[in-house]
Specification:
Its EC number is 2.4.2.9. The chain has 6 helices and 12 strands. It is an alpha/beta fold and 219 residues long. It has one domain: Rossmann fold (3-Layer(aba) Sandwich). Strand 4, helix 3 and strand 5 form a beta-alpha-beta unit. Helix 1 packs antiparallel against helix 2 and helix 2 packs across helix 3. The longest helix is centred in the N-terminal third of the chain and has 20 residues. It binds 1-O-pyrophosphono-5-O-phosphono-alpha-D-ribofuranose, uracil and magnesium ion. The site of magnesium ion (MG) has 5 residues, from strand 5.
Length: 219
């Protein structure tokens, strides 16, 4: 299992992550969504370097050109809601990919301190032998990612799993390293933060990604 923390490199990605975290910039929800989307585009580009390639001959108006192109079948899977716009970033890059959607959400108890993760909906193609990219901008405890993956295994056995997130807690990285298949999982994070608070929010994190992208929800 390999974990790649993209914030260890000096790239423009770090600017987009810092804008996502910034309480002032967060007031502009269109910019918040667009930053998530463009981080998805950049991360998809990084993941594309790990795929299998074969050469493709193309007829141009003046001759033929040979280019190495990716040949893997991809499934981009997303956890509602916050994952939606992140998913689109991946799809902008991998425009031929198939797509899967899982609804996993935190159902808080009265005290707002403890919660269950509910999965009520899954829409997915078969994933046998395909490269599965699980996208969710926040990886706090790792529970939503784990349960979503378990739900998707009813659709087959992927060739490789990429867990793609923007902000992960250190705890969730360790949880995923323990609970996902060792031999075929890669974790990609744009940043890894040190802790969770008592409500299992990432600290410093950015707050509630779903609410910042789409507005507050009832319950
Ligand atoms: O790692 P975990 O502890 O499971 O937490 C992470 C989950 O929390 C967020 O979704 P949330 O449940 O807030 O739903 P939303 O996207 O609808 O706001 C986020 O998008 C992840 O799915
Ligand atoms: O920090 C967190 C944890 C879960 N969901 C979020 O949107 N943010
Ligand atoms: Mg969610």
């Amino acid at each position: 299992m390999k974990t790649i923390n993209l914030s260890e490199q000096n790239t423009i990605l770090n600017r987009f992550v810092s804008e996502l975290r910034d309480v002032d910039v967060q007031r502009d929800s269109m910019r918040f969504r667009r930053n998530i989307e463009r981080i998805g585009e950049i991360m998809a580009y990084e993941i594309s370097k790990t795929l299998d390639y074969s050469s493709l001959e193309t007829q141009t108006p003046l001759g033929t050109s040979t280019t190495n192109v990716p040949v893997d079948s991809l499934v981009i899977a997303t956890i509602l809601r916050a994952g939606l716009v992140y998913h689109h970033g991946f799809l902008n890059c991998f425009d031929k990919a198939e797509n899967a959607f899982v609804s996993a959400y935190r159902k808080y108890r009265e005290n707002h301190q403890s919660f269950h993760i509910h999965i009520e909906y899954i829409a997915s193609p078969r994933i046998d032998g395909k490269v599965l990219i699980l996208t969710d901008p926040m990886l706090a405890t790792g529970g939503s990612m784990d349960l979503s993956y378990q739900a998707l295994t009813t659709k087959g056995e992927p060739k490789h799993i990429h867990i793609a997130t923007i902000i992960a807690s250190r705890q969730a990285i360790e949880y995923c390293e323990r609970n996902f298949p060792q031999d075929k999982t890669t974790i990609w994070a744009a940043a890894i933060d040190p802790e969770l608070n008592e409500s299992a929010y990432i600290v410093p994190g950015l707050g509630d990604a779903g609410d910042l992208a789409y507005g507050e929800k009832e319950g």
